[in-house]
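Exercise 7.
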Amino acid sequence: MNRHCVCACLAAWMALGMAWGADTPALRLTAYINIASGCQGPTEQFLRDLARRYAGRVALEMVDFGTPEGQKRWKADGHHCMTITLDGSSQATIVSKGVELTVSFTMPAGHLWIHEDLETAVRQRLDGIAPADRRGPALSLRREPLPAAVLADDAVLAELPSVEAAERLLSSLRQAAEARPLTQDDFALDLAAGQATVSLRGVPVLALAGGAEETAGAAAAATFERLVKPFPRVARPFPGQVPMRMRR
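Solution. The predicted structure, written as C-alpha cells, is:
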C-alpha cells in the first residue's frame, strides 16, 4: 500500500470517527417523571432547556411513568419514585461554591436536589470543574447608604445598624471561610424569650432585634434564610420553609 493510499484511508477513518462523535451525545440524561399528572411542569421545562443548551452533547429521554408503558419501563429500570439519571446513575458528585456534594437526583426537585445541582452536574460532566466552582461567594461590605450591609456576590446577606457591626459580621464570615468553605449547615438560629441569635460553627455572630416571640421568630427566620441562601447545603433532604436548625 503506497503512501497516498495510506493517507487517504487515514483521512477517511478520521472523517468517519468525527462524524460518529458528532452524532453520539456525550451524556445520556434520562428523566423518569409522572408527566401525565402535570405536577412537574417546571422541571420538565428545565430539562428541555438544559438539553437545548447542550444540543448534540446531551441526549434527553423522558419516561412518563404515569402511563402504563412508561410505568413498566420505570419499574424495569429499578426505580420507585421520580428519578433522573446521568448515564444510568441517579447520583453525581459535584463541586459547588467550593464544596464537594454528592447529590441524589431522586424525588421531585426541592427534596434531595435542586435544578442548580443538576445543571452543575451536567456541565461538570461535560466540561469539567471550572475554577469558579471551587470558590465560595465573594464576601464584601456596603458602608453606605445606611443601614450598612454584608454582601455575598453583591447580594445582601444582612443589613446592620452600623458599619462597625457589619465589619464584625464580615470578619467572622471571612475567618470561617478561610478555614473551610462555608455551608448552610454551619449556621444555626437560636430563639429564646423573643431574642434571636445566629451562630456560625457554634460561635454567636449576629444578634437580631427582639420583640413579641411570634413576630420575632418570623422576622428572624426570614433574616436567617437570607443570610445562608448563597452558601451550598450539604445535608439533604431540604427542610422546606423551616430553617435547617432552629432551637427554642
